[in-house]
Specification:
Layout lengths: L2 H25 L1 E12 L10 H7 L7 E13 L4 E4 L5 E10 L2 E8 L3 E7 L5 E7 L3 E10 L1
Antiparallel strand pairs: 1-2, 1-8, 3-4, 4-5, 5-6, 7-8
């Protein structure tokens, strides 16, 4: 290899390695859309902002009304804890653990109710029934975006 080719190769490697490292760091953040909803046995409307959730639940569960209580988007680094408070007073903690081609592994902790790790594909949602609340059920929906 001639001196000029070796120099160009060294420069190319010197430029590409930092770019690859930056791309890897960028992937190490995960956006999570957390939605707390209430499905009730009382007659009432289906909240238009809960339409996707309603489509996925209507054949599986019985309820008369569905409303979104809170929707929050959080941006977390790997191992960073994000949280949302439920109207029952319980505290939900979520923590992205790792990313693979099949999805992000997320730790979910609701003290006294649930402690689990879930692998969720990008842009797909997972639905968790949390607690009984006000003649119905609280539902937590997680949807990663990375």
């Amino acid at each position: 290899m001639s001196g000029s080719r070796a120099l160009w190769l060294a420069v190319a490697i010197g430029v590409l390695i930092p770019i690859c490292a930056l791309a890897q760091v960028a992937v190490q953040r995960v956006g999570l859309l957390l939605t707390v909803s209430h499905a009730s046995s009382h007659p009432g409307p289906i909240d238009p902002s809960a339409a996707d959730l309603h489509r996925s639940l209507q054949r599986e569960f019985r309820y008369e009304s569905l409303r979104v209580i809170e929707r929050r988007h959080i941006d977390l680094r790997m191992q960073e804890i994000g949280s949302v408070d439920l109207p029952t007073g319980k505290h939900v903690e979520v923590r992205p653990l790792s990313i693979s081609p099949s999805g992000v592994l997320i730790s979910v902790d609701i003290p006294g109710t649930l402690q689990t790790d879930l692998r969720v594909p990008n842009q797909k949602q997972v639905v968790i029934g949390v607690d009984r609340y006000d003649d119905g059920k609280l539902i937590l929906t997680l949807q990663p975006d990375y």
